[in-house]
Amino acid sequence: METTGIVHRQTAERVRDTLERLATERDVWVSTAHPDHGPHQVPLWFSWDGRAVWMSTGATSVTARNVRTEPRVRLALPDTSDVVLLQGEAECFPDQEVPGGAAEAFAGKFGWDPRVEEGSFVYVRVVPRTVRAWRGEPELRGRVIMRDGMWLA
Fold it and tell me: What is the pTM of this model?
């Protein structure tokens, strides 16, 4: 792993950078698991409301089925040189029962509104309990920036 040029960020800076990425990025890797079928991972679009990550997927998708059985999930932003991992419990909202603000923010960000699609969709909300962020080996120490749902900075 190349570490040249990596400056060790303090916790407050990591939190700030993470919040900026959550507000601006489009894609997140969603890892779920089912006790009988094992792990499942898929990239989804997401929006961040300042407290939770919101995604949408088909109501009968593996992700939705897994979340209903085992709500613990891990999310990862897709940059291996600027890692952000979130852990939390997911909750599914049928597309006609999702809070309006979350659905409008999602539709505004992507120009796509699952609520008007022919098929049945769910919105998946994840409120992070733990967040880890690091850029290379020099930042492995101190990578936990949220614990028990509280930012550490």
Answer: 0.93
| Three-state DSSP class for residue 71 | coil
**Nearest residue to 42 (alpha-carbon basis) of 26, 24, 57, 59:** 57
The tokens for 47 are: 């929006």
Joined tokens for residue 62: 């593996």
* Under 8 Å between Cβ of 60 and 120: yes
The predicted structure's pLDDT at residue 4: 57
Cβ pair 30, 41 in contact under 8 A: yes
Determine contact, residues 91/125, Cβ cutoff 8 Å. Answer: yes
Q: How far apart are CA 137 and CA 64, in angstroms?
A: 34
- Reading the block at residue 49, the tokens are 């409301």
- Whether the CB-CB separation of 31 and 41 falls below 8 Å is answered with yes
Query: How far is Cα 56 from Cα 150, in angstroms, rounded to an integer?
Result: 25
Mean pLDDT of the chain: 95
- Adjacent-strand bridge partners of 126: 53, 90
Find, among 54, 57, 86, 52, the residue nearest to 72 by Cα. Answer: 86
Strands 53-58 and 38-45: unpaired
